[in-house]
Design a protein that fits this description.
It is built from 3 helices and 3 strands; from the N terminus they run αβββαα. The protein is an alpha+beta fold. A hairpin with a 3-residue loop joins strand 1 (44-51) and strand 2. The chain starts with a helix and ends in a 5-residue tail after the last helix. InterPro entries: DUF4907 (IPR032593). Pfam families: DUF4907. This is DUF4907 domain-containing protein.
Amino acid sequence: MSMKSYTIHKYFGVLLFIISLLYVENIQAQNLQQSSGINTTTKFNYKIIDAPDKTFGYDVYADDKLLIHQTNKPAMPGSKAFATKKDAVKIAELVIEKLRKGIMPPTVSKEELQMLKVIR
């Protein structure tokens, strides 16, 4: 096998691996969405909750059933919660927006926390 042929086979192998991972991720997200009972008629709301050390978290409800209980800042190391209720509201609303769009799980990134000025 020539070096060029080997490189092409290696490239397609990596590409096939990446496609397989994306496929599995999509199937897992669909299964999670189906098992949670979320659909286009689901009504979402949230409640800001107290967390340790005078901080705040949030609960997200889908049709009045608790779906997410978040007592710490997502995407951040440790278990520190939000310093203000306003910050917890911003992220709870972002999570609900993702759920309405069918994004499951509705993960929050560090960049989103920065964009919403929850962290610097």
